[in-house]
Amino acid sequence: MLNAQKQKDEPSLSPGLQKNRIFATPRAKWRAEERGIDYAQISGSGPEGWIIERDILTIPTLKASPLARKISAYHKVPLSDIEGTGSRGKIVSEDVYANLSSAPVETMDMPQDTILPMNNMRRLIAERMMSSLHGMAQAMHRLEVDMDACARLRDELKALDVKISFNDLVIHCTAKALREHPMLNATMGEGHILQRNGIHIGMAIAIDKGLLVPVIPHADRMSLQNLANHTKDLARRAKGGHMQPGELSGGTFTVSNLGMYGLDQFTAIINEPEAGILAVGAIKARPVALSNGSIVARPTMWLTLTYDHRIVDGAPAALFLARIKSLLEHPALLL
Fold first, then answer.
1. 289-317 as b/e, with b when 16 or more CB fall inside 10 Å?
2. Residue 19, class by beta-carbon neighbours within 10 Å (0-12 exposed, 13-18 middle, 19+ buried)?
3. Nearest to 145 by CA among 318, 302, 258
4. What are phi and psi of 304, to 5 degrees?
5. Which of 98, 184, 277, 300 is least enclosed, having the fewest CB within 10 Å?
6. Known catalytic residue: 308?
7. Between the CA of residue 123 and those of 111, 120, 126, 212, what are the distances in Å?
8. For residues 118 and 209, what is the distance between their CA atoms, to the nearest angstrom?
9. What number of other Cβ atoms are within 10 A of residue 8's Cβ?
10. Of these residues, 75, 148, 264, 309, which one is catalytic?
11. pLDDT tens, position by position, for the chain (335 residues)?
12. For the domain bounded by 120-334, which CATH number is listed?
């Protein structure tokens, strides 16, 4: 069977060319790539010197992380040529990247990968997001909100020289809803659930180096205008690098708004140890069916709630999100 396969694959090779070629079965090549082994250096024990899977499996496996193996296979850098700097000599991805300068290049115009060292902020974000996903039972609800009333309120306030953003309105309504639904303002403890007395809302802000979440303390006690002044100050200082460490901790719930980037909907990861995070999409004109049956274009926005199902069940989480929707669609309820 093996000879037949060889004849099928190499019908026109002369004996001289066959002498210089290295023959290996598909499974042997796959095993060699999987283990980072250069099979060209192996003597085959199969018929006519073919390298078979057993030949690869008899070679001691080098200790290497899965990512290091993938990178070495992609760049065709044998793991056997790399000295590991990980625990007990394990080869890690950085070791492979460090050897790329000596790797064989097939074409002169092959694009080179760029190594971007992770700064402390990026590393901390990565660790916290992975911890959040692995440590929580995260579930999601999503609702579309008619923002027509909020748009009219914002225009009226602007005419009075009071500048309020849509995000201010979302945070304000979220704070009010948290007061009525305290289980969304809780954290998971060792064998217990801790309901937080204060409502301290984190406001996710993108900066050049990553993401900051300054906290608005006692957001439910602020007037809409005071809240707006506070969020403007936090955003200005966060982007200018003038935040105090205490302003980035102690949050009990987070609001993340990516509407300014045109995203209709997205799912945010909970800022551990909080019980939930609200993702806010872009406000766009969309068709809306009115109670009289007519369809009109209205400014609407999608809200996505991610919550910790260990603390909150689906129905209470849905009621909380529905309350935010109701407050936004009827801002007079905020009075």
1. eeeeeeeeebbbbbbbbbbbeebbeeeeb
2. exposed
3. 302
4. -120, 120
5. 98
6. no
7. 27, 5, 5, 13
8. 10
9. 8
10. 309
11. 444 444 444 444 444 444 556 788 888 887 777 666 767 767 788 888 888 888 877 776 677 787 777 777 777 777 777 888 887 778 888 888 777 755 444 444 557 788 878 788 888 888 888 888 888 999 999 999 999 999 999 999 999 999 999 999 999 999 999 999 999 999 998 889 999 999 999 999 998 878 899 999 999 999 999 999 999 999 999 988 898 888 999 999 999 999 999 999 999 999 999 999 999 999 999 998 888 889 999 999 999 999 999 999 999 999 999 999 999 999 999 88
12. 3.30.559.10
Rg (CA), the chain: 29
Judge whether 309 counts as a catalytic residue. Answer: yes
Find how far residue 164's CA is from the centre of its chain.
Answer: 30
The CATH-assigned architecture of domain 18-102 is Irregular (4.10)
DSSP 203: E
Cβ 248 vs Cβ 215: under 8 Å = yes
Cα separation of 2 and 10, whole Å?
12
Separation CA 279–CA 140 (nearest Å): 10
Helix axes 166-180, 314-329, angle to 10 degrees: 130
Domain chopping of the chain, boundaries: 18-102, 120-334
